[in-house]
Specification:
This protein has 431 residues and is an alpha+beta fold. Helices cover 25% and strands 29% of the residues. Strands 1, 2, 3, 10, 11, 18 and 19 form a 7-stranded mixed sheet that branches. It is flat and about 115 Å long.
Length: 431
């Protein structure tokens, strides 16, 4: 039987015609491409918030470590900050014994800035429980006589300004104003201690904070005490940064007074004038306590050394608000036969929930120990209908039995220091 052969020429022509008609891509191909591209873009997009978060955490850890080192240096220079925190005469033995002889006096908080800014419970760390009648807060001290307005010659605003300079990260400055002008006084004469702005008004300038002191101690801000003319006691320090006309060179001075459109400082500055360099502009900045520290202290029974933690806080809220509130809690410490428990419970009113978060810190407010929270499990209606119990998983077993807890808002890092010897006590005992 004879087989029919296909007309290859005709078929090839038809295929070529079909291929010529299909010069683009199909809708299905486009959709598949978009889907593959979307998967890649979504995967890439998720990396951006993670990288921003990691960058923020790295910045906070770096600044916290720097501030912790500053605090430890201050302690080494002035050991009475830890061992004689109320600023009494450290050459009197009784003033040192009162901080460790009795068991209930060995744990306390040294908090220069919080002590000055608290309007209530200044001498106690934290507000009382809302759901119990317990008020056994840890004692809080200013840490040094220069931070205490009870010291003769130290006013309240001056004490707070001293504390602010000590516990704040040195480069915590925020921009306020800038403008062009000349290094001259209000009369137009060259001045090595003044800068007069061209366009900024006095209403704008007087809002720049300058630490002010109640010189006569009458509790009112007199005209000679009001350094910026805004009528209120200011405590935050401000500075002026003066740039040359190229913007490549600058000088910084601490502001000591504002009058009209003129800003003044004490440390004379002639560098630009002597070198024939024209001044371009000036910027005003105010110190902001973004990163601050406080100390938790646990004295030994002998008083010869103390365990100290530097607690670094970021944008710490007002100490008189919920940012420092006690809650009923249970920390189970070790016994003769068992280790401490890594589980702790905190009881709070349902409408007054503390800011508990994984990775955050919680303070055993009985023994002044800090723990990092690894997990949280909340149960409402326990032990009463209006209360909630949160069971926390701690990063380590509890070191002692505790009945109170604090979640200090703004606490981002806790740095345990090596034991600090009681130098003032040793000097008295040696003599």
């Amino acid at each position: 039987m004879k087989q029919l052969k296909p007309d290859n020429g005709k078929l090839n022509a038809e295929r070529r015609s079909q291929l010529e008609r299909r010069k683009g891509t199909t809708l299905a191909e486009v959709l598949v491409s978009i889907m593959i591209l979307s998967i890649g873009l979504v995967s890439l997009a998720t990396l951006f918030p993670i990288s921003i978060l990691r960058s923020l955490q790295a910045t906070q850890l770096t600044n916290s470590a720097i501030l912790s080192a500053d605090a430890e240096t201050f302690i080494d220079i002035a050991p009475e900050l830890v061992h004689n925190p109320d600023g009494d005469n450290a050459t009197v033995l009784a003033n040192l014994l009162e901080h460790f002889q009795a068991p209930n006096t060995r744990n306390y908080i040294v908090d220069p800035l919080g002590w000055n800014r608290a309007t209530a419970n200044k001498s106690s760390f934290g507000l009382p429980f809302d759901n119990t009648n317990k008020t056994d807060q840890l004692p809080r001290f200013s840490g040094h006589s220069s931070f205490d307005s009870a010291t003769p010659g130290i006013t309240a605003s001056q004490a707070e300004a001293n504390a602010l300079r000590t516990v704040t990260l040195p480069d915590s400055w925020v921009f306020q104003l800038d403008g062009t002008g000349l290094q001259q006084d209000s009369a137009g004469n060259f001045s090595s201690t003044q800068f007069t702005f061209d366009e900024l008004t006095n209403d704008e300038l007087k809002e720049v904070s300058i630490p002010e002191v109640d010189i006569d101690g009458d509790g009112t801000l007199d005209a000679n005490e009001d350094l910026n003319g805004n009528g209120i006691f200011d405590t935050a320090e401000s500075r002026i940064v003066i740039f040359d006309i190229t913007g490549k060179k600058s000088q910084v001075r601490t502001i000591t007074g504002i009058s009209g459109q003129t800003v003044a400082w004490n440390d004379a500055f002639n560098d630009f004038a002597n070198a024939g360099i024209a001044v371009g502009m000036a910027r005003l900045e105010t110190r902001e306590p973004r990163y601050t520290w406080l100390l938790t202290v646990r004295q030994s029974p002998s008083g010869l050394r103390a365990q100290v933690d530097v607690v670094v806080l970021f944008r710490r809220p007002d100490p008189s608000t919920i940012g420092e509130k006690h809650y009923e809690a249970v920390f189970t410490g070790p016994t003769t036969t068992t280790n401490g428990s890594r589980d702790a419970t905190v009881v709070f009113l349902t409408n007054d929930e503390p800011v508990l978060k994984k990775g955050g810190y919680i303070l055993d407010a009985t023994n002044a120990h800090w723990y990092r929270i690894q997990d949280i499990n909340e149960v409402e209606g326990v032990p009463t209908a209006s209360e909630t119990t949160a069971t926390l998983r701690l990063d380590r077993p509890a070191l002692a039995d505790g009945t109170a807890a604090m979640v200090v808002e703004g606490a981002i890092e806790v740095f345990p220091l090596k034991p600090k010897e009681n130098i003032p006590l040793k000097q008295l005992l040696d003599n």
